[in-house]
Amino acid sequence: MSLILRRTEAFEVSVSAVCLQNWTQFQSSRYRFMNTANWANGQKRCQEIGAMLLVIESGAENSFIAHELRLRNMGRAWLGCTDVKIEGEWVCHLADGIRAMPYDDWKSGQPNNYLHRQHCADVISDTGKWTDIECYHERYAVCEINSTQVKVPAAEPAVVCPRAVATSCYILGADGRLHP
Ligand SMILES: [Ca+2]
Ligand SMILES: [Ca+2]
């Protein structure tokens, strides 16, 4: 019984180790850079791959993301943060719930809630500065997974791990290290 359980755990770890190669790492987070979508659809696509829209928590992370966006020729990307519920009260959607915005880098004059309908936040890759805009706009979706809470959904391996790649999976040994 316990042997079977251990084998299952090892398999899950091996799948995560391979699949997460498609993600870009910075500190304790991994990111996947997706196509444009409106805010709600961007969040939905991230959730479908076990992630959430990017939430930036430090100046270092902000600079990293702006740089990665520029490398990909991506102009503006969503942040997983809105003030749609209470105007001016910015909150961010994390895997374990909604929290007050942990960090901000608003562009001068932003957020301005122009025409009283700008309730989603985006980051501009050129400067790393943020603006509030209408949530229906199309922006790149950057999905983020915190490595400390990695949960690769069952559907993910079939999509991103071709059979040839899966043969190089790693097994988590009893010593806590990954082995080929
Ligand atoms: Ca607003
Ligand atoms: Ca604005």
TrEMBL record:
Recorded superkingdom: Eukaryota
Pfam families per record: Lectin_C
Annotated transmembrane regions: none
Cross-referenced SUPFAM superfamilies: C-type lectin-like
Alphabetized SMART domains for the sequence: CLECT
Domain C-type lectin residues, every copy: 26-144
Record-given protein name: C-type lectin domain-containing protein
Organism: Patiria miniata (Bat star)
